[in-house]
Design brief:
globular; Rossmann fold; four-stranded mixed β-sheet; 8 helices; six-stranded parallel β-sheet; alpha/beta; 21% strand; single chain
Length: 209
């Protein structure tokens, strides 16, 4: 990555990590995907039960493969015929892995969900939640984070899943009530009551959508 962009990302990450700290959440900065993987594995002890939502960023840094190959109880929902069973197991896992659709530079996380298994696990259940977040998802305030979640992340994800929504055809949010909408629940995480439960690894890269 360009040195000037890297410097900007480092400075922005420092501000964001301070914001997370003020909200009782832990923040880390990784200068590369490889370093992000190293930090994540340092946070997850061997033998832990680990689940995740459909986070592309987790796959992109190689974390899901490392967990499958390592000494972990990785709950891979793609391996379950009964997806609901795998989703329910996530609520009692030691760790839940996710990304976010957007976040503010003072540490507020924004997530939009269709089935709500991801946002519900972020809010309650798993003992720990680890977010893998590319610096492309860090926004200046809650309004711009919401706009990114609804007008960037949501349209791309509806296209990825082959859903029939206005945003999948036009590329921007129509605040629709389509049967296929994935904007069913919106979770804004502004504080963690349980210190140490939520960790965010900010990555000097463009990850996810």
């Amino acid at each position: 990555m360009d040195a000037n962009i890297t410097k900007r990302n480092e400075l922005l990450a420092q501000k964001t990590i301070e914001g997370l700290k003020s909200r009782n959440m832990e923040g880390y900065y990784a200068s590369s995907k490889e370093k992000a993987l190293k930090i994540a594995l340092e946070l997850i002890p061997e033998g832990s039960s680990v689940s995740m939502g459909g986070a592309m960023s987790v796959h992109e840094i190689g974390l899901s493969e490392a967990l499958k190959e390592g000494d972990y109880n990785f709950i891979d929902r793609d391996a379950y015929e009964d997806k609901r069973q795998a989703m329910l197991m996530a609520y009692d896992a030691d760790f839940f892995l996710s990304s976010c659709n957007a976040m503010t530079d003072d540490g507020i996380l924004v997530n939009i969900d269709g089935n709500a298994n991801r946002v519900s696990a972020i809010a309650q259940g798993p003992k720990h939640v680890i977010f893998i977040v590319g610096m492309n998802k860090v926004c200046s305030d809650i309004d711009s984070a919401m706009k990114r979640a609804r007008n960037v992340a949501a349209p791309i994800n509806t296209q990825r899943f082959g859903l029939n929504t206005p945003c999948s055809k036009k590329g921007t949010c129509f605040n629709c009530k389509s049967p296929d909408t994935i904007c069913c629940q919106i979770l804004i995480t502004r504080f963690s009551r349980h210190k140490g439960r939520i960790s965010v690894i900010l990555v000097n890269d463009d990850l996810g959508y």
